[in-house]
Specification:
alpha/beta, binds zinc ion, eight-stranded mixed sheet, Aminopeptidase, binds manganese (II) ion, 15 helices, binds ligand BES, 2 domains, Leucine Aminopeptidase, subunit E, domain 1, seven-stranded mixed sheet
Length: 498
């Protein structure tokens, strides 16, 4: 990821300077100065191009004698005005353009005097964040080649007033948090399994997060037989990790819950071979929770938030759970395991129950790559949102809108709860075949949350992308990190209005 520097110093004397242009050809303070120095070069270029629309570029190579080597004009203005997401996505476009031009270090001129929809320094910080998020790539296992294309490594953001410490910290925290989630989601399952995942969670201690790891013996003692039933086919031991950020004195925390299936073969109900490698990212819910804890602690949010993740590997073996087995969850409910591939809900059943009984939540939000059915319903454009509480659902929808991580509400309800009735046990872990598969998963989870305000995000369609996204390259998206951070910001901080 590129490194950001914020400075109120003099503009650089060489290199590439990115200069924002208002719609359709309005010059801000810096552009006006540069235009004068260059005898009207910028105005002339814009006239010839007929102005610069939002997100469009014009590259100007400067003659010797002028201080800079190159100006990259970028259209900023939009008739309807800019949202925070517009500013972030614009930053992402700038980063991609600079990378395509082979620029290794660039500067962004002050945005003063332009219609930005925010104060110039704040807008510049958002642009910079977008640039940083878009420049993330997971290259850990690629041996660098000698003739490799140059990469954008540095963006220096010039400001006319000091960027507040809180804002700078929030930018860096968000970028590092999303990168942490993407790193976890990208790792192969021979490297990242429950024990090593739990070790990585301990790194959050550096940010002041209290991290507690519950090992297999501890899980046995707690009676988490639903989670342990999934784990029993694997040579890898399961773990549950509890991460607490106490940024406010309020007693009851917001609890974030994540599905951490480090690899999902399906177990005895084994999945087809084609595409099975994708199931290394069946821990993306847990990754998002770890990332969100990083974001929240990294900017020292004034909120009490606890993250809890259930880490297992779902494997077929001589010790694996069989279709038809009955397990007793920690809550006391008995579950008939019809399909060992519906394992995420078994893991979350015990983690949700533990959270409810031991963490005294004010509300719970779980994230899970739970069903293929949610992809059938919503594609890769939105995650499924299920909630038993209108206020929580509304706050999540607002946060989703702000950060551009789409949520679409799907139903819960008694009629669907009938789908998971079992002849043999209290409930079974599948619904009625292809009918409302994502809801079947959600109503199963609902059995373990009781009366608490709760929301479930089925992120199976959005955790990984085979296409480039506005703020992410192909691969792990980090979906959920900024959404949860924004949820805390708008509804759970000491001064929140939610
Ligand atoms: N991890 C999968 C869901 C999934 C599918 C995530 C595709 C990402 C991409 C989950 O554990 C699973 O296998 N679900 C089953 C449930 C079924 C057996 C009731 C599914 O969706 O087929
Ligand atoms: Mn599965
Ligand atoms: Zn799974």
């Amino acid at each position: 990821m590129i490194e950001l520097n914020f400075t109120e110093g003099e503009l650089p004397a060489s290199g590439t300077l990115v200069v924002g242009i208002g719609a359709p050809a309005t010059l801000g303070a810096t552009a006006t100065g540069l235009d004068k120095k260059s005898k009207g070069l910028i105005r002339r270029a814009l006239e010839q191009a007929g102005g610069l629309k939002h997100g469009k570029f014009q590259e100007l190579v400067l003659p010797r004698g002028l201080e800079l080597d190159r100006l990259l004009l970028v259209g900023i203005g939009k008739p309807e005005g800019l949202s925070r997401l517009d500013r972030e996505e614009l930053g992402a476009r700038v980063a991609r353009k600079l990378e395509a031009l082979g620029v290794e270090a660039a500067a962004l001129a002050p945005l003063d005097g332009l219609e930005l929809g925010a104060a110039p320094a704040a807008a510049a910080a958002e642009l910079a964040l977008g640039a940083k998020l878009a420049s993330y790539a997971f290259r850990k296992y690629q041996t660098p080649e000698k003739d490799e294309a140059k990469r954008l490594g540095q963006l220096t953001v010039y400001l006319t007033e000091v960027l507040g410490d809180a804002l700078a910290a929030s930018v860096e925290a968000q970028a590092a948090a999303v990168a942490r989630a993407r790193d976890l989601v990208s790792e192969p399952a021979n490297v990242l399994y429950p024990e090593t995942f739990a070790e990585r969670c301990r790194e959050l201690g550096e940010l002041g997060v209290e991290v507690e790891v519950i090992d297999e013996a501890g899980l046995e003692q707690l009676g988490m037989r639903a989670l342990l039933g999934v784990a029993q086919g694997s040579a890898r031991q399961p773990r549950v990790v509890v991460m607490r950020w106490r940024g406010a004195k309020q007693a009851k925390p917001l609890v974030l819950v994540g599905k951490g299936v480090c690899f999902d073969t399906g177990g005895i109900s084994i999945k087809p071979a084609g595409g099975m490698e994708e199931m290394k990212w069946d821990m993306a819910g847990a990754g998002a929770v770890v990332g969100a804890m990083h974001a929240i602690a990294g900017r020292k949010a004034k909120a009490h938030v606890v993250g809890i993740i259930g880490l297992v590997e779902n494997m077929p073996s001589g010790t694996a759970q069989r279709p038809g087995d009955v397990v007793k969850a920690m809550s006391g409910k008995t579950i008939e395991v019809i399909n060992t591939d519906a394992e995420g809900r078994l893991v979350l059943a015990d983690v949700l129950h533990y959270a409810k009984e031991h963490l005294d939540p004010s509300a719970m939000v779980d994230l899970a790559t739970l069903t293929g059915a949610v992809i059938v319903a919503l594609g890769h454009e939105n995650a499924g949102l299920f909630a038993n509480d209108e206020k929580l659902a509304g706050n999540l929808a607002r946060a989703a809108e702000t950060v551009g991580e789409g949520l679409w509400r799907l139903p819960l309800g008694k009629a669907y709860t009938k789908h998971i009735k079992s002849q043999l046990a209290d409930i079974k872990n599948v619904g009625r075949g292809r009918e409302a598969g994502a809801t079947a998963g959600a109503v199963f989870l609902e059995e373990f949350v009781g009366e608490l305000p709760w929301a479930h995000l089925d992120i199976a369609g959005v955790a990984w992308s085979s296409r480039e996204q506005p703020l992410a390259a192909k691969g792990a998206t980090g979906f959920g990190v900024r959404l949860l951070d924004e949820l805390v910001r708008l509804a759970y901080e000491a001064d929140a209005k939610g």
